[in-house]
Specification:
The structure is a single chain. The protein has 296 residues and is α+β, with helices and mostly antiparallel strands. 41% of the residues lie in helices and 21% in strands. It is built from 10 helices and 11 strands. The strands form 3 sheets. It has a 6-stranded antiparallel beta sheet. Helix 8 crosses helix 10.
Length: 296
Amino acid sequence: MAPPEFNALVNEFRTTQLNDLTVAAGFEECLVAAGLGSLDRLFACSSEQDLQKPGLSAWRERIRLTLTIEDEPTALYLKRYTNPPLAARRALRQCGARVRSLAGLEWTRMCQLAAAGIPCVEPVAFGEKLTGNREVRSAVLAKAVPGRSLEAWASEWTGADRQAVCQAADASAVIVARLHGSGFIHRDLYLSHLFFHPEPADGVPIRIIDLQRVLHKPRFFRRWVVKDLASLSFSTPDTLFSTADRVRWLKRYLGIGKMDRAAKRLAYSIIGKTRRIARHDRRRRRRLGPSGMDAS
């Protein structure tokens, strides 16, 4: 269950309209002060930091901004989409959400997960421009989550950090269980998309980010659950997390004290899928050139 502090934030979540933007209540003033009070303005602003990943298509951008909110400098992340290709528009139609743009999908998922009590990225603003049913451009702005990705933490943790590892593992098991228990599938559930803060001011140690691929109650739900859990297992270093640790994590996720037959079947399914992900990753790495782009 999400901490009461987070549930209070969810219950208070409201939106307003600011020109052609949908804005989370309380952010209107800071957006206007920063000159970001319209979709045109969101597309005109420049990035403080290059966040483009190798191979990321030119029609989508990720930008980091700093705005003054309640007299404090606050980091926000802006995603922008311009004339997305047919494949992206087709995937949007297949996502199971009644949305008209890629930014609209992520905005919707942020709001849905928050309403379900799942700590995630806090939505700030969203806007879209359409021609008929075709997306011309869209943008979504969200607050940076506290802490760092578990991927970053895992690269530094050693045996001396056992307490922090156990805290992060326990918190992640609870939140992933809540995610799946609410009918959501992340589809990109790696350590890089779970942010951990060991001493959170709001009592929420783990938050989920990058929600643009999330599905809600898809067909073959168990298969998708296995893929999520295998992705998480694949990205977790064996040097940091032993087989016994993984079993304890799974029991915490399932809310059981002892592995029964159903839990063991799930564990074997996760192991098999993890191995397939590893094989696919090895093939992909062989295709990549020194620049990180596909060598083919």
